[in-house]
Specification:
Blueprint lengths: L22 H4 L4 H15 L7 H9 L3 E2 L4 E2 L4 E2 L5 E3 L4 E2 L4 E3 L4 E3 L4 E2 L4 E3 L1 E3 L8 E3 L2 E3 L4 E2 L4 E2 L4 E2 L4 E2 L4 E2 L7 E5 L2 E6 L2
Parallel strand pairs: 1-4, 2-5, 3-6, 4-7, 5-8, 6-9, 7-12, 8-13, 9-14, 12-15, 13-16, 14-17, 16-18
Antiparallel strand pairs: 10-11, 18-19
């Protein structure tokens, strides 16, 4: 507790009645599209039902930009497919959650393993209105996001990098770098 400085605020710390969606966010798609995505996305994409072909087809139908040979496993959760771009021959493992309030751009030959969480939005706790702090996530070609990895907003994973099991990634990673830990730090390089 000695390192934590107690702060006294004269008023409320957060007043969620003052929260507003960013204007461009609210108008990004018609409400009817959001409605149908919530129904079909939750029921079909996030289900245990096997098969990737129909998941890819449904994601494309709702605006995701997906390359050839993309594999999407069961129980995947994607917030908004119209803010998702995936290159060729990329795998999205079981129980991956792409919480894309902002764009998530994933390159080709990328493996995102089971239970990974990609988060593009946070809140500014220094403001009582608790506004969004959004940041795009980019994962370059040939990267491997191992199982149970958490990736924070505004992170870029360089080409060929490996984010090891259970790591928490707050900062961008240069190409061909292996990182591990909480927070993730470089531990080696890929040849």
């Amino acid at each position: 507790m000695g390192l934590i400085r107690r702060m006294n605020f004269p008023g409320p710390l957060q007043d969620l009645s003052k929260f507003n969606l960013p204007q461009d966010f609210a108008k990004s798609r018609p409400s009817v599209l959001w409605f149908f995505w919530l129904i079909f996305g939750e029921i079909l994409i996030s289900s245990w039902i096997p098969g990737s072909f129909w998941r890819v087809l449904l994601l494309r139908l709702f605006g995701a930009k997906l390359g050839h040979g993309v594999l999407v496993k069961p129980n995947v959760k994607i917030k908004f497919p119209w803010r998702l771009s995936i290159g060729d021959h990329t795998w999205i493992g079981e129980k991956v959650w792409i919480d894309n309030l902002e764009w998530v751009v994933i390159g080709s030959n990328v493996c995102i393993s089971q239970g990974a969480y990609l988060c593009t939005g946070n809140h500014n706790f220094k403001s009582t209105s608790f506004p969004y702090l959004l940041g795009r996530i980019d994962i370059e070609d040939e990267a491997w996001i191992c199982a149970m990895v958490l990736i924070a907003p505004s992170v870029r994973v360089g080409m060929g990098s490996v984010i090891k099991f259970g790591s928490v990634l707050y900062d961008s990673v240069p190409p061909k770098t292996i990182v591990s830990g909480f927070p993730a730090v470089p531990i080696g390089y890929r040849e």
